[in-house]
Amino acid sequence: MRLMRSVKHRNFSFRNLFSHPEVTIALVTGICAVAFASFFPNFATGNSAQVIFTIAGTDAMVGVGETMLLISGELDLSVGTVFALAPFLMNTFYVVGVPIVIAFLMALLLMGVIGFANGYITAKIGVPALITTLGMFFLIRGLTLIVSNFHLITLPNIEPFRSVVGSGVIFETLPIPMVWAVGITIVVALMLQRTRHGLWTVATGSNPTGAGEVGVNTVRTKIYNFMLAAILAGLAGIIQAMRIGSAEPLQGGFDLTLGSIAAAAVGGTSLLGGSGTIIGTLIGSLLFGIFRDGLIIGGASEIVYEMALGIAVVLSVGLNVLLIGRRGRSGRQT
Amino acid sequence: MREGAVVLVTAVMIAGFTSLNGSFFTLANSKVLADFVAGNVAVAAAQVMLMVVGEIDLSVGQVYALSPYIMYLVYQDGLGFKVGIPVAILAAALVGLINGIVTVRLHVPSLIATLGMGFFLSGFNIYISNGWYQIMPEKQPYTAVFGGGVIAGIDVTYLWTAAALIVLAIVLARMRHGIWSIATGSNLFGSREVGVNIRRTKIMNFILASVIAGVWGIFIANRGFTFGASGVADPAQGGDTLTLESIAAAVIGGTSLLGGSGTIIGAFAGSLLIAVLQDGLILVGAGAYIYQTLLGAAIIFSMALNIQARKWARR
Questions:
Q1: Is residue B189 classed exposed, middle or buried when 0-12, 13-18 and 19+ CB atoms within 10 A define those classes?
Q2: Which positions 252-271 of A are in contact with B (Cβ < 8 Å)?
Q3: Mean pLDDT lowest for which of A104-108, A326-330, B196-200, B273-277?
Q4: Using N-to-C axis directions, what is the helix angle for A46-71 and A79-95, rounded to 10°?
Q5: Closest Cα partner for B209 from B147, B268, B164?
Q6: What are the structural domain ranges in chain B?
Q7: Above 0.90 for ipTM, yes or no?
Q8: B190 CA to chain A: closest CA distance, Å?
Q9: What is the C-alpha separation between A286 and A60, in angstroms, rounded?
Q10: Which residues, 6+ apart, have CB-to-CB distance to B193 below 8 Å?
Q11: For B102, which of A130, A309, A314 is closest by C-beta distance?
Q12: What would be the CATH architecture of the domain defined by A39-322?
């Protein structure tokens, strides 16, 4: 897997260009942005752009983790609640006297433990990821409510930690969450392309049995990806909480989970495993952010967005399956 | 044998809760438990039918609220329940059909298809109701038949539920659709080769699941009439909690998502366990979210157990 999906071509042609899913989604995103901007002048302001980048930034981070998992053939429904738990954990550590940066790292470490649990139960014990992470979703939500005692908390306003992690803005338009998202996208994309783990991820997803036979440790690969997804989700949750200044136990949730899977699917990652693009997920998140902001500015209510999201997710996955082709994995799909 | 283990755990829980709060072991509380089970177990059984073919439906909780409200709206339009009830059931069937077609024809994994549908419906439910519940009008005999009546001291809903469970159990064990479902779930390609119509089997189970969710939603909406109050058309009825509970009941009762195995009696046992769990937690004063947490853990644990049992059985 290259940074852009590798396709052997001799000459440049538009057909070859569009064989990269990233290009298609980037184009669609660009068209949407222009369309919204021309219909709703309010859309094209720096303020609006900031809002879009901020939301898309956190969504993208979660999406990137989800993408790696999808490529390896699994998925994680619990990211939405892990997102909510992390800031509360960090705050708990801080309140008992741990320095904020250490608290931050400890929270992320615990996210890794959760990811490990997801991965172990799914890959080692064999419980389908759907069930494991569905159960974990509610388990973690319950934990979050217990830790938070059911209400939101205000997070410590410690500089420069707060600016670096959440509330800073670069060049007046680029919010820090987006900077984090882009950075993480690049790192993970490189990991997918150039490291053994990345190679093993793709192998595990496209042909688990075959990969196992040539020496790929599919179990370990999947566990690592579950841990990555949980850590990134926790990181995104902390970043958002630091930006807003408070954390709410019910934030994220199914919305976030669904959004991250949708962004990955729309960006070109196959839900059946074996192929995917990290950059595509980032662009997909941007597209959803633009859509949401555009709909709100256009005056549509949140309900419309929810209905549209449901339809959009199903359509985008359907399209995804259609274009990328059905990957028949031994006895699993029609 | 599996169901026996579940019943045992339930018995232990009953003993435990009773020791913490004596009012658990009373007649009044058993009515509460029965109500809870009646509202859930049919949907759980429907979920079993789907999981047997290797699929799942995350939108049942929303259909549970959709059908009663549509029934209410049609009635308000002056067409009465005679039209309202069929329309409501048809709407549920339509949802199931879409779920089935998207999964089977468009090859969107049922998880995503029904999750998206669930999302869509939750928005839709709020849209058609403006977020408010309405008092359900009473029109005999429809109201009595569809959940509001009491026969010889037993709620009509219990009778419907018992009948449905028996029918589903027979279908799964003895009738062609049930056999085909099990075949589809355990060996997809092999079944197709011996002539099983896997597409139709799956789609039918999707429709079945949604229709059951819708009809029982109507029963529950009319439940108020059984004790002298009035029914309620509530867009928030069921919801994510019901979806989770139906899956939990199925899984705890021994159904594996991997397909090919599952029992209706297991769904009943699982549903009973969950009812005891929730009711017990309320009576000892624990919070509602503790329930969700434990439910989540129970699902994972039961599923892991199911899979281990399968591995042992294979040796």
A1: exposed
A2: 254, 258, 261, 265, 271
A3: A326-330
A4: 110
A5: B164
A6: 2-306
A7: no
A8: 9
A9: 8
A10: none
A11: A314
A12: Orthogonal Bundle (1.10)
Whether omega for the bond prior to residue B68 falls within 30 degrees of 0, making it cis, is: no
Helix axes of B60-74 and B198-221: crossing angle, nearest 10 degrees: 60
Centre a 10 Å sphere on the Cβ of residue A173 and count the other Cβ atoms it contains: 12
B113–A314: do the CB atoms touch at under 8 Å? Answer: yes
Of A75, A121, A334, the CB nearest to B300: A121
Three-class SS state of B150:
strand
Axis crossing angle, helix B110-129 with helix A253-267, rounded to the nearest 10: 130
Look at strands B134-135 and A246-247 and give their pairing. unpaired
pTM: 0.81
pLDDT per residue as tens digits for the range A22-65 = 777 787 788 878 877 787 777 777 777 788 888 888 999 999 99
Domain ranges of chain A: 39-322
Fold of domain B2-306 = ABC transporter involved in vitamin B12 uptake, BtuC (1.10.3470)
CA atoms within 13 A on the CB side of B140: 5
A127 DSSP 8-state letter: -
Query: Model confidence at A329, in pLDDT bands (50, 70, 90)?
Result: very low
Q: How many CB pairs under 8 A join A and B?
A: 140
Please list, in sequence order, all residues whose beta carbon lies within 8 angstroms of the beta carbon of residue A295, skipping any fewer than 6 positions away: A304, A305, A308
Per the DSSP assignment, residues forming a β-bridge with A153 are A247
